Amino acid sequence: MGRGVKIFAAACIIVAVCACGAAFFDEIFLTDGGLSDAGYFLTESDDAVAAASLKQGSRGDDVKNVQKKLKNWGYYSGAVDGIYGAQTVAAVKLFQKKNKLTADGIVGPATAKAMGLTLSGASSSTYKSSDVDLLAKCVYAEARGEP
Question: What is the pTM for the complete model shown?
């Protein structure tokens, strides 16, 4: 296989990685024991828990679904905006207390099950511009000088 074909294949893989989301990116580029953005060491179980839970700062459709359920049940009075803020945390804690769950304000697997929800995990991860820049530099370094 020619070098140009290899570079094209590598570029296609990189595009696929970008399209699949941050969870796939982390799976490929962070190994067990790698440092997270927050500076603590990641393990596979940390990644799995983070992907399957919602907490303050999370955004997306999963958060909207949680807010809708909590609002329908009278636990939440804020806007259903898909942003997991202080009001959502308070509502989740109240729901957890009433359902005899650990009242930590985090929608993990047990809380999601009690709410009748399945979390996709995609909303807990986001790309940083520095990640995209690093990826672009890697592609450039591999492809520069090629016709």
Answer: 0.51
